[in-house]
Amino acid sequence: MARILVVEDEDNIATALDFLLSRDGHSHRRLATGAGAVTEIRASHPDLVLLDVMLPDVSGYQIVQDVRADPALNDVRVLLMTARGSVVERRKGLALGADGFIAKPFELSELRAELSRLLEG
Q1: Where is the Response regulatory domain (predicted)?
Q2: In the predicted model, is pLDDT for residue 10 greater than 80?
Q3: Burial per residue of 37-61, b for 16 or more beta-carbon CB atoms within 10 angstroms, e otherwise
Q4: Cα–Cα dist 35/20, whole Å
Q5: What average pLDDT score do residues 1-19 get?
């Protein structure tokens, strides 16, 4: 069972993620904004962060950059999620240190495959 932090402002997506993660037996928490996300990641040290790129207060790109700047968080995996799934967005996310990138809306099977890949790696 993995410990997963979901940082997602859209309730409908957070609900779908909650359902999937619960069904797969993962322990998870949700933050609806990016404010305090890095502090929460430091405090709870999750195995994986499902991180929305477009948050109301701070971008997911900034959060992944801050996480990667902290050597104590090197083992925390980050999966970026965005409705703007262009090649440019993907490259930017991966260049900043994300471990994976998934475009919304995503198929549950696609998300499940990415979760498996990141949690086994």
Answers
A1: 3-119
A2: yes
A3: bbebbeeeebbbbbbbbebeebebb
A4: 25
A5: 95
